[in-house]
Amino acid sequence: MPISRNLFRDFGKYNIVVMFITTLASNIVVGALIGYYLDKWTFKNGILLFIFIILGIVSGFYNGFKILLKETERYDKSEKVNEKDGSDDNDNGNG
């Protein structure tokens, strides 16, 4: 039983979501770690931890949306190529 191309396209859509969540989570974790250690080393009042968590969230959303835009553009290009290839095959078969 051959696997259809639609199944792979669906996995590609899920992959985009997983990449977005991974990017967001990793940026938040890195920001929290930097904030924790800087706060531990300097003021010890939690302000740097808070600031770096906020920076991690902002950078996570920024990088995540950049990835989403790049992947959707790539997905749209592949859809256009697939539509073009499908229409050429139909034209040649009928004519």
UniProtKB/TrEMBL annotation:
Basic and acidic residues bias (residue ranges): 75-87
Transmembrane domains' residue ranges: 12-34, 46-65
Keywords linked to the UniProt accession: Membrane, Transmembrane, Transmembrane helix
Name this protein carries in UniProt: ATP synthase protein I
Superkingdom of source: Bacteria
Organism listed in the record: Thermotoga petrophila
Metal-binding keyword on record: no
Region span, Disordered: 75-95
Keyword Transmembrane helix: yes
